[in-house]
Structures are given as structure tokens and as C-alpha cells.
Design goal:
Helix content: 40-55%
Radius of gyration: 18 Å
Structural class: mainly alpha
Number of domains: 2
CATH topology of the largest domain: Glycosyltransferase
CATH architecture of the largest domain: Alpha/alpha barrel
InterPro entries: 6-hairpin_glycosidase_sf
Oligomer: single chain
Strand content: 5-15%
Protein name: Glycosyltransferase
């Protein structure tokens, strides 16, 4: 492992035989905050993306899959938060955690190197696909899982239906050329919305839908680039026709943009999208508004946010997985 590669060291540190802890104080796990389905699903995604996983990474995927199947009820909904003493603190639902669980299960069903994990993940995905969420982002995350399934199982009607319902939930972008987006504000994981539309257009051979998604992503990428550097919409979000804050920039935004641009590169074969993936990689390496690296080489952990005073040095699960996910794309760049 090179000094430039965070690997899975901190993800292993943040995990136990139950799941993945949500928070850390610097690199030290905050067990009192417990686990959440959101982050376990993210962990399953990055573990399943590795084509030749080491044994301990396979064990992580097994653990994360077991957590998600335990979180899922008979209707296909998911519980989100599990305390350290293994008690669910919330009832099953279809919020963002349902969408991310579906994304994780879809990715594992399509990409995991272990056949039985693929089979079990698909079983849980199909059950979860009986549900729909009223929240566009939850539907977008679930749609990304459906797209993963369809890339390897083109005749899976359950995944196809979920993917198109996700497109409908996201909605059509505004006709305003200065804001070609389905909503009047940008909040979190924004690029996921464009990525779903791109994937749906490609998988359904709908050129108009594909063009719409690419146009959305191009605009989002352009407005988040300043002087050649990535400067993502901060945690406070950004509403049309209002001033935009510079900080607190979140790693999840960078990772979502890298994912979407990598999908665009795969679908179109256009190397310009790979260059946009490189901007996300560079953001973690220090090509950002503060000029500082956004991860700790000593631990392999990703910092929790870019503030006006520099990095938030806490290394939670979401930020660490955002780092790993983006660096996985870096390893595939030509």
C-alpha cells in the first residue's frame, strides 16, 4: 500500500463483528454513537467494488450484508440506527437509509467477488424493491442500486421498474439555462440525481433521458469548479438566486460527483469526464479551497469536512468511505 493510497485501514478500524460505527473523534471510534444502516450500506458498496478483495475485506462485506438483512423487515423497509448494545432505536422506514441500503445491496448483487454474497444481496434487494419512498434522494440512491443490478441482469424487471420510478421521483430539470436542475436548491449528494438519470437513459436506450442527465451533471460540475479546483456546495446547501457559502464542504459531495462522472465516462467513452473524476481525487489530495489534504495518511481516515479553518479532523465512516470510493475511481483512471 502506497502513502498515496488510504486503503481500507480506517474502515477496518471503524468496524466490528456487528457493523460499522458511525462516528469517530479524530481516528478513535465513538462507540456511544452506535451504528447506522446508511453507513453500513456505503461500506458494502466500496467493499463490493473491489474485484480481488483480501480475506479481511470479504469478511467486512459479509458483516455489512448481515447487518442490512437484520435491519430489513418483512415489508422490505429498513431500520436505521442500532445502539452499541444492539437495540434498534427507530422503527423500519423508507428514508435515505432505505435508499442507501438498496444501493449497497444492488452493488453487492452485481459486483461482489463472492457468489453467495451476490445471491443473498439480490434476495434482500428484491424484497426492498417492494417499497417506494416519498423522498427523491432516497429514490435516487435506490435507483443507483437498481442500475447496478440491471448492468448484470438486463432482464430484471423489478430493478427496471425501481430505476424508472426513481427517475420520475427526481423529476424533470428546469428549462432555465442558468439552473437546469429539478429543484430550486442543491442540498446533499447532489450528483446522485444526475447519475440516476444518466444510468436510466443508458440502460433503457433513451437518448433524450441520457442527454438530460449529462446536461445536469455538466452544469453541476461546472458550478462546483473554481479556478480549476473543485469547490463543492457546502453543507448549508445553495438555493437558486441566493449567495453561496464557501464552507463547510463535505466529502460526500466530492465522492458523489466522482461516482457520477465515472458513470458518465463509462457510458459515453468521453475522456473529459475522467478529467472531472481527477478533480475529485485532487480535492482529497489538497487541490481545494484551503489547499490542504482531506485525509490522514497515518490512519487512512477521511476528514469530516473542509471548514474555513481547515479540515475537521474527525474521521467518521461517511467521510472515510467517500475517500475510499473516490480513490477507487483514481485506480481505474487511464
Amino acid at each position: 500500500m502506497s502513502a498515496a493510497d488510504p486503503g481500507f485501514r480506517h474502515l477496518l478500524r471503524m468496524s466490528d463483528d456487528t457493523g460499522l460505527f458511525e462516528h469517530a473523534r479524530h481516528a478513535v471510534v465513538r462507540r456511544d454513537h452506535g451504528y447506522c444502516t446508511d453507513d453500513v450500506a456505503r461500506g458494502l458498496i466500496v467493499a463490493s467494488r473491489e474485484p480481488r478483495p483480501a480475506r479481511r475485506l470479504t469478511r467486512l462485506a459479509e458483516c455489512y450484508l448481515a447487518f442490512l438483512t437484520h435491519a430489513q423487515d418483512r415489508s422490505g423497509a429498513f431500520r436505521n440506527r442500532l445502539t452499541f448494545d444492539r437495540h434498534w432505536s427507530e422503527p423500519p422506514g423508507v428514508g435515505d437509509w432505505w435508499g442507501r441500503a438498496m444501493w449497497g445491496l444492488g452493488t453487492a448483487a452485481a459486483r461482489n467477488a463472492i457468489p453467495w454474497i451476490r445471491d443473498e444481496a439480490l434476495h434482500a434487494f428484491v424484497l426492498g424493491a417492494e417499497q417506494r419512498s416519498p423522498y427523491p434522494r432516497a429514490m435516487a440512491f435506490a435507483g443507483l442500486g437498481a442500475a447496478e443490478v440491471l448492468r448484470t441482469r438486463t432482464d430484471n424487471t423489478v430493478a427496471a421498474s425501481l430505476l424508472m420510478d426513481a427517475v420520475e421521483a427526481i423529476g424533470a430539470p428546469s428549462e432555465d439555462p442558468s439552473w437546469p436542475w429539478p429543484q430550486p436548491h442543491l442540498t446533499y449528494a447532489n450528483a446522485a440525481l444526475a447519475e440516476v438519470i444518466i444510468a436510466a437513459g443508458d440502460l433503457s436506450d433513451d437518448r433524450q433521458l441520457l442527454t438530460t442527465g449529462l446536461r445536469m451533471l455538466s452544469w453541476l460540475s461546472d458550478i462546483q469548479t473554481r479556478d480549476g479546483l473543485l469547490a463543492v456546495v457546502p453543507a448549508t446547501g445553495w438555493r437558486q438566486d441566493t449567495p453561496r457559502d464557501r464552507y463547510d464542504q463535505q466529502p460526500i459531495e466530492v465522492a458523489a460527483l466522482a461516482d457520477a462522472c465515472a458513470t458518465a465516462a463509462y457510458v459515453t467513452g468521453d475522456d473529459a469526464w475522467q478529467e472531472r473524476v481527477r478533480r475529485s481525487v485532487a480535492w482529497f489530495q489538497g487541490a481545494n479551497d484551503a489547499g490542504v489534504p482531506m485525509w490522514d495518511p497515518a490512519t487512512g481516515g477521511g476528514y469530516d469536512g473542509l471548514t474555513e479553518h481547515g479540515p475537521n479532523l474527525n474521521q467518521g465512516a461517511e467521510s472515510t468511505i467517500a475517500l475510499i470510493s473516490t480513490m477507487q475511481h483514481a485506480g481505474r483512471l487511464s
